[in-house]
Specification:
disordered N terminus; mainly beta; SH3 type barrels; six-stranded antiparallel barrel
């Protein structure tokens, strides 16, 4: 396939899947390529178009239009609060500048909560100021009464507040995710986190978790990404040396920019430093398609509606 034909195929496929913060390269034949410019050489451009990486000679290029210039120069501008953007959650594909864990915990600690049920407890974190939060499905599985403990910062200290009007919005038992909502009318606007990218992580990169291991709320543990593609029971997980224990389930795993890159959900009990987290990309997919995973106990149109199996035909009574 010639370079020009290759460009046409790339352009057509690129139209079907838009890239976040994509750049546009205008070509001489009036076609264009949309993707992320990885490198600008004197004789060519290296462009990631999502499904492959192209090397475009400068002689083919008439102009370059770079999107999200402000976000590229100012990482903080790449993420706007969910309420400001009108989105259900805040997310970024470009991690902000790394900071020390101590300052990050002070900034985002309020967004991490403790989820309690009659059968036990776990952790969770807010996605937006309206009280929607993520936890693990196994934390609330089979439970009807759920409460959420939130730690509000007031006058330089954290005050614990328990909310008992909690509704299950959506569940995905296969990826061990649950979306909850605090429906208490007296609830204030909540602090929330930003979802980052697990794909952007490097093996050996520092991460940290905040949760309630064994009920010890607001415990911070730190480690590294051991591997990004650990396969367990058909699913891929982030493996981390960050200490994960019962009670951490459903809590956030942060990168050193303070973005959630995973949801902690399990560990190997007979080893140390062998914790696992659900990658942020799976979490975003679950949230983007939350209507398909909607949970309801009384809606006849819920996706989780199981019909009774057909029974044997009962013999009709004969008339005497």
């Amino acid at each position: 396939m010639s370079f020009r034909k290759h460009l046409v195929v790339a352009t057509l496929l690129g139209c079907g899947a838009q890239l976040v913060f994509a750049d546009t390269i205008q070509l001489k034949d009036t076609s264009s390529v949309t993707g992320k410019i990885l490198a600008e050489k004197t004789d060519s451009l290296i462009v990631d178009v999502g499904f492959t990486v192209l090397q475009i000679p400068r002689t083919f290029v008439t102009s370059i239009s770079k999107a999200a210039t402000t976000a590229a120069t100012d990482p903080a501008a790449a993420v706007l609060p969910a309420a400001a953007t009108g989105q259900f959650y805040a997310a970024t594909t470009k991690p902000a500048t790394a900071r020390d864990v101590s300052s990050l915990v002070k900034q985002i600690g309020e967004a991490v909560v403790q989820v309690k049920t009659a059968g036990g407890l776990g952790s969770g974190f807010f996605l937006n100021e309206d009280g929607y939060l993520i936890t693990n499905f196994h934390v609330i599985e089979g439970e009807t009464e759920i409460s959420v403990e939130v730690y509000h910062q007031q006058n330089g200290q954290l005050d614990r507040e328990t909310y008992k009007q909690v509704k299950i919005i959506a569940i995905n038992k296969f990826h061990d995710l649950a979306l909850l909502h605090i429906e208490d009318k007296r609830a204030p606007k909540f602090k929330f986190v930003t979802l980052g990218s697990a794909d952007a992580l490097n093996v050996g990169e520092g991460v940290f978790a905040i949760g309630s291991p064994l009920g010890l709320e607001r415990t911070v543990t730190q480690g590294i990404v051991s591997t990004k593609t650990r396969q367990l029971e058909g699913n891929l997980y982030l493996q981390t040396s960050t200490q994960i224990n019962p009670g951490n389930s459903g809590g956030p795993l942060f990168n050193l920019a303070g973005e959630v890159v995973g949801v902690t959900n399990m560990k190997i009990t007979f080893g140390e430093g062998l914790g696992f987290a659900i990658p942020a990309e799976l979490v975003k997919n679950f949230l983007d398609h939350r209507d398909a995973f909607a949970y309801s106990t009384d809606n006849p149109n819920t996706p989780f509606r199981y019909l009774e199996p057909p029974g044997r035909m009962k013999a009709q009574p004969t008339e005497k």
